[in-house]
Each structure stands twice: as structure tokens, then as C-alpha cells.
């Protein structure tokens, strides 16, 4: 991976989510629920929820990236973990901003697979090395991505967050 980066603006993000939603609709997939992977997937799931007229949105909090290019050894689900009863026999669309290594998506996909009728994934970006090949992808890239919500540093730095040492 070189120094070149994908630069996503909020305007382009809006277009990307609409195009993802159209791909889902054109495919005939009608999710009962959208499961977002927090944090980046929250934005994607909200846009998909409106575009696909799905009001049943859930969140799965997963910690993996700790900085630019730095990760934990394995992704970790953070509480509250969705109740499998809420997922039971549903058609679930998992939403995230990027399938980079695919390890986070795989964790969520595997969690869902035993309990749902069907699980598919939608991401804005998918990288070639991703373990999970998503059904719905706006753009393939091998670059680092500057997302509009994470390109600026936090306004405040919070110490003692979950998994901080």
C-alpha cells in the first residue's frame, strides 16, 4: 500500500450509499434488518435503512483498529452484544464502511450465520485482501481510505475507553 489515499467526502458518501441501496434492491434482496458494525458502519446502515425503507436497525460494536494501520490481534465484540433472539430467522444485511482485512466482517457474519435465515454484507469499500467477499460493494481499492467522519482528530481524547491499557 503506497501513500496514495482514497478521499471520501460526505457528498460522495451519500452517492455511494444510494448506489449500494440500489444494488441491493436490484438484486431482489429484502432485508428484515440492517446490522451495522460500529463505528463506521453506523453511517452506512442509517443511509441504507432510509433508502431501503428498513426501520429495524441494530448495532454490533467491534474493536479492531487502534490507529492508522494498527490493530488488535483479533477483533473483539464489545457489549452490548445483540440478542440472538432479535436476529432469529431474519434476513440480515450487515453494513460497514470498509472490508479491509475482513476479520471484523467475518466475526459478525459468523455470529449471525447460526441464527438468521440469510446474511449478506454491504460496504462502501472492499480491499482485495478481505477474508469476506461482500455481496454489495460500492468501490474496490487497495488504498488507505480517508473517511469524512474520521479524517480529523477527535475534539477530545478520552482515556480509559474499552480495551485501553
> Measured on Cα atoms, how large is the radius of gyration?
15 Å
CATH architecture: 3-Layer(aba) Sandwich
Largest sheet: 6 strands, mixed
Kindly name the structural category.
alpha/beta
Count of distinct structural domains: 1
Within the largest sheet, what's the order of strands?
4-3-2-5-6-7
β-strand number: 8
Number of helices: 4
Question: On the 0-100 scale, what is the average pLDDT?
Answer: 88
- Here the CATH topology equals Rossmann fold
In whole angstroms, how far apart are the ends? 29 Å
Q: Would you identify the regions where 5 or more consecutive residues have pLDDT less than 50?
A: none
Helix-strand pattern, N to C? EHEHEEHEHEEE
The proportion of strand residues reads 25-35%
The CATH class turns out to be Alpha Beta
What characteristic shape results from the CA principal axes? globular
Helix content: 25-40%
Keywords: Glycosyltransferase, Transferase
GO molecular function: glycosyltransferase activity
Organism: Streptomyces radiopugnans
Protein name: Phosphoribosyltransferase domain-containing protein
